[in-house]
Amino acid sequence: MTAAPCGDAPGGGRYGEAVFRPEEAGEGERIDFGALAYDGITMARLRALGVGPGWRCLDVGAGTGTVSRRLLAEAGVASVLAVDRDVRFLSARPVPGLDVLESDITAPDFAPGRFRLVHARFVLMHLPGHDRLITALAELVAPGGVLVLSDAIDLTSDRTPGTPYSAVMRAMWQGLRATIGTDVSWVPSYPHLLRGAGLVSVAAEVHVPPLLPGSPISHFWADTWERSRVAMLATGLVDDAAVDAALRYLGSDECAALSAGMLSAWGWKPEEGPR
Ligand SMILES: C[S@@+](CC[C@H](N)C(=O)[O-])C[C@H]1O[C@@H](n2cnc3c(N)ncnc32)[C@H](O)[C@@H]1O
Q: Keywords in UniProt for this one (predicted)?
């Protein structure tokens, strides 16, 4: 599929180009640190929703494929189609039952079939037109199936204590917004958006991993900050010294902060017509 839609970042950049380039050393490890922090929660939710033997699954923006492979190995699903704009990490670790498709999910002709589970984690927050994408992904859910979408929620507020951590987190969200269009402001609206896409029995939950020195989520943020350092500096909110101070703070026992969380929302496709 070849369509190349424009991002809605002010600079017109896209995920994987200006920032988070898959060809850069360590990008797969960065995604894996996020997976280490969140895979247990994701798998518990998917299992609680009944995902298991016989299910055909679609994992959108599958990254390194940790969830795709765990669906096969632990939940015993029939198959997983793992889609990503760049499949180098997926292709590097093939397993039986895992099919890999290199495709841009924002392309108007993205239509890989119908699935009992459609899952996307930390993908839609980086893409333009999230409401259209939610509708398009809901279309890919077979009757009786479930759409499960997870993205980050920013838990800083104007009363968050001023620490090196909070200054850099603010600069990160603003810098990513300006360079690749990342926007987490709408993520708390997921339940409403899923209902609007015609799904029923909609619900959501939030998980915030503990921000402890040396934890996977601390490694994930440290690596994410390094990769988005140029974008953060361009905001004018922080300088190199502030980023370095935040990295030291994150790795120290002084760290006393709240990580961004993961909101997971799900909704079911009615078997026949609206309930
Ligand atoms: C932050 S990673 C999340 C990976 C995985 N879902 C996880 O949670 O571990 C975002 C992934 O979405 C992919 N992605 C971004 N834009 C995409 C697009 N337009 N079409 C397909 N995949 C995309 C990226 O290549 C990357 O692998």
A: Methyltransferase, Transferase
Residue 248 lies inside a defined structural domain of this protein: no
CATH code assigned at 90: 3.40.50.150
The total of structural domains in the chain comes to 1
Give the structural domain span for 79: 27-155+183-209+258-268
Q: How many angstroms does the Cα of residue 31 sit away from the middle of ligand 1?
A: 9
Cβ of residue 223 lying under 6 Å from some atom of ligand 1 = no
Say if 225 falls within a structural domain: no
Residue 169 lies in a domain: no
Q: Is the pLDDT assigned to residue 273 strictly greater than 60?
A: no
DSSP one-letter string for 165-221: HHHHHHHHHHHHHHHH----TTGGGHHHHHHHTT-EEEEEEEE-----TT-HHHHHH
Q: Give the predicted TM-score (pTM) of the model.
A: 0.94
pLDDT per position as a tens digit, 120-148: 999 999 999 999 999 999 999 999 999 99
> Within a domain: residue 226?
no
Q: How far is the CA of 40 from the centre of ligand 1 (A)?
A: 19
| 61-117 per-position pLDDT tens digit | 999 999 999 999 999 999 999 999 999 999 999 999 999 999 999 999 999 999 999
Query: Residue 32 CA: which ligand 1 atom is closest?
Result: 9
